[in-house]
Design a protein that fits this description.
By secondary structure, this protein is α/β, with parallel strands linked by helices. The chain folds into two domains: 255 residues, Putative sugar-binding, N-terminal domain (Rossmann fold); 162 residues, Four-carbon acid sugar kinase, nucleotide binding domain (Molybdenum Cofactor Biosythetic Enzyme, Chain A). The chain is 37% helix and 19% strand. The chain contains 15 helices and 18 strands. The chain has a 15-stranded mixed beta sheet with strand order 9-10-5-11-4-1-3-2-16-17-18-15-12-14-13, with helices on both faces. Strands 6-7-8 form a three-stranded antiparallel beta sheet, with no helix packed on it. The two termini are 34 Å apart.
Length: 441
Amino acid sequence: MLGVIADDFTGASDIASFLVENGLRTVQMNGVPNRALQSTTSQSTTSQSTTSQSTTSQSTTLQSAVDAVVISLKSRSNPVEEAVQQSLQALAWLQKSGCSQFYFKYCSTFDSTTNGNIGPVTDALLDQLNDDFTVITPALPINGRTIFNGYLFVGQTLLNESGMQNHPITPMKDANLMRLMDAQACGKTGLVAYSDVIQGADHVKGCFEQLKQQGYRYAVVDAVDNSQLAVLAEAIDDFKLVTGGSGLAAYMAAYKNKNNTAQAEKTALLPNKAKSVILSGSCSVMTNKQVEAYKTKAAHKLLDVEQSLNNPNYAEELYQWVIENLNGEFAPMVYATVAPEQLKAIQAKFGGETASHAIEQTFAELAQKLKQYGVKNFITAGGETSSIVVQKLGFDGFQIGKQIAPGVPWLKALDEATFLALKSGNFGKELFFSDAQEMFV
């Protein structure tokens, strides 16, 4: 029923976990697959928590009896042209696979500059679907992301005062979603306010029709708690394209599954207690708190940006440090997470993109070495860090396991005993890193 195009890996596992929790059999794929879903009689299709499958291995057969397919891209901070091209490729594959509705998933903090990529990708998807209207709804109330009068809040704080204004790649300087969308898209953005949403799905549909008649191409929809997302899910059930965070998708899944009296099966998939490591690249406010809390529990080492840029043996040195510290009660942590003032100094000295690229490549090389050594559990923080690590490790798809925190499940790599927790920067509570390890069996 539902084809999801996610603009990074943490976002893909985030939305996949919410779809599974709300009753949709879901597969998650790493990048655009190169062959179609295939039916199989050798594999059970009754589980509500369906295995994510690879299309690159000839020995792997894909299940066709699924309700939702999530394609994880690395397109959030790519050049606009690349992001559009990847997203259209994903859409084409999902259409061929029989999906009837499509969801462009981006972060609940609407990470996007005035050039894109949310606006241009949305426009390209609408055009390809021969459609002219969609919603803009990054709200995720369970994680404190709410929308009121078109302004995006993180907790009680406006987006542009939440720490996201210091993001190294997509600094968010405005909290007004209409202005943010208008700056990067080719159409006009209207608002369906809280006072309208609480009047129910039929009223919201009427608001959409009014906006379309007035020439609007997108509608920001207020949501201060989950009840507004439930209303919106009903109102957009027949939309070709929906855009938003994982919050709305959860209620869409619940609405689509409303006639299924069986409860969604909760997978017991959890990692074994084994060699583990934490790789933290996010500089978000919450990840800074998580890193500081974890420093009191386990061995930790700050990744040196200058070493990443100039020392070709740096990843090997970090690797040696990690394996020397693998036998503690908690996993060792390598982190590039720093406070905003330190981040500004790094960007001023090395350049924002140069520093970010060097950090990502170091994490990727380190992860590859650790996998070869026998590390089985990887906990990563930050969308870019998670994306490059997954790409470097070469995983094709994932089974979706238990949630560690809302939107952050344990993932099991297909055909391997390797588990990953891919955490968006501001997700999870302060003890997230240790909480994840306390779920080991």
